[in-house]
């Protein structure tokens, strides 16, 4: 049988299959929108940065786009899970708990996911807390993808720590943006961060795919109200 053809704008078919097989929460149509944004942003020749690796589902698509564009992905996570992923919560997966330590550890699953897809060399994984890592970072980024903690404390810290590093014409992508509280499942902090980015005057909306929002830097960092 002939190999599945790659659509001109889409990820490699085997990467898309790996994405769909990986543990995680992002549906396919949002993944394709993330991939399209990452492909475009990789054209700037700058790294792509993700906050919230979990088991690598979205990282696969970023890595495929980075490979195509000749750049790297940096993905940041402490790998101990967000609030809603802890035992007793709806999004808890008992398989992610390290029985020796008694806490979640998604790093092994992430590494297996990336290895199986042959994408390890395109990704730099940083194990740590997003604000702590952000304080050490001082270079421009082609894309920042915020998909970390969903409390106001975490989403705000992710925005404040990383959005200033989005280069001119670079993209800020925010996941789990729910304008209607009826749709919320982990709160509206990402929505509040999204509004803040728009109100800052530094970012302009490019696309909306369900809860995935893509914004472009069209203003200078620090010039707005945000
Ligand atoms: C919704 S999951 C990410 C899902 C992933 N992007 C995917 O598509 O499968 C959120 C992740 O953010 C991580 N996280 C939450 N708060 C964090 C923080 N302050 N610093 C680093 N990682 C954090 C959690 O450990 C969790 O793995």
TrEMBL record:
Q: Which Pfam families match?
A: Methyltransf_24
The domain of life is Bacteria
Q: Where is the signal peptide?
A: none
Q: Which GO terms describe its biological process?
A: DIM/DIP cell wall layer assembly; methylation
Citing just one GO molecular function, the answer is:
methyltransferase activity
Instruction: Decide whether keyword rRNA-binding is in the record.
Output: no
Q: Does the keyword Transferase apply?
A: yes
Its Gene Ontology cellular component terms are: plasma membrane
Q: Which UniProt keyword terms apply here?
A: Methyltransferase, Transferase
Question: PANTHER family from the xrefs?
Answer: RHAMNOSYL O-METHYLTRANSFERASE (PTHR40048)
- What is the protein named? Class I SAM-dependent methyltransferase
UniProt lineage: Bacteria, Bacillati, Actinomycetota, Actinomycetes, Kitasatosporales
């Amino acid at each position: 049988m002939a190999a599945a053809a790659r659509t001109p704008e889409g990820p490699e078919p085997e990467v898309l299959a790996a994405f769909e097989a990986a543990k995680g929460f992002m549906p396919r149509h949002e993944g394709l929108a993330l991939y399209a944004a990452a492909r475009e942003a990789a054209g700037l020749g700058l790294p792509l940065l993700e906050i919230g690796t979990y088991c690598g589902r979205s990282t696969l698509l970023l890595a495929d786009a980075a490979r195509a564009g000749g750049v790297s992905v940096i993905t940041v996570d402490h790998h101990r899970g967000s609030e809603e992923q802890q035992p007793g919560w709806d999004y808890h997966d008992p398989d992610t708990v390290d029985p020796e330590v008694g806490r979640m550890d998604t790093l092994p699953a992430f590494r297996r996911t990336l290895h199986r897809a042959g994408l390890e060399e395109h990704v730099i994984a940083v194990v740590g807390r997003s604000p702590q890592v952000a304080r050490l970072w001082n270079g421009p980024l082609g894309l920042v993808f915020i998909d970390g903690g969903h409390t106001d404390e975490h989403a705000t810290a992710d925005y404040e720590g990383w959005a200033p590093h989005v280069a001119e014409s670079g993209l800020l992508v925010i996941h789990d943006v729910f304008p209607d509280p009826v749709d919320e499942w982990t709160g509206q902090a990402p929505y509040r961060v999204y509004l803040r980015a728009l109100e800052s005057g530094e970012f302009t909306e490019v696309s909306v795919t369900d809860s995935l929002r893509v914004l472009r830097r069209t203003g200078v960092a620090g010039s707005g109200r945000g």
